[in-house]
Amino acid sequence: MQDHTEQKIRLRSKLRQSRDLMDESMRQQAMTEINDVTKRELARLRRDKRKLGNKRLMIFSYLSYGSEASTAFLFEEGWKHGDRMIAPKVLANPARMELRRVMGEQDIQPGIWGIPEPKDSCEVLQPDSWPDIDLVIVPGLGYDLHGGRIGYGGGYYDRFAETLAAKCGMTDKRPRMAALVLPGQLQDEIPMDPLDLRLDLLITTEGILHIV
Hints:
single chain, alpha/beta, seven-stranded mixed sheet, two-stranded antiparallel ribbon, 4 helices, 11 strands, 32% helix
């Protein structure tokens, strides 16, 4: 089996540098377009959910930091519509993510490395409830049209996806995995290993790309 470790290290470095150096006006324009596309998709998901008699969406998203595609609008939009907004809190020993509900700005504080995270007072969403999530917005440095993604190398979202898959195996529900794609992040091919998380949707400035 091919080991992609070195290839991934080089690609991470290249993509991180490219994202950090993006022209600010281009970033803002791209985020405006991505926000509009995301809002339309959320409106569609809410309509579908209402038809099934369930009124509120449950959305799990990273809290953006540095040059990442901003998720501030997503949380504001979710809170405005009464969606259940879930955010990750990174824990050590063993390295894992806790999913916690955030109900407003007051529930968020700077965590490890200054990255925003939910406060300890926020309700924890237990793994048995993870299949109830409708949409997961995954952070990353690059993506491809096969659902490939390269993250930051910590493996947190890959482990989350593995646990989620095991929990979804006991139910007929499965959250959709999506990414907000800034200009320059879409690659011809991302080197992928067997346990790497794969995406269902790419949310771009042009619209939604569905991975089949």
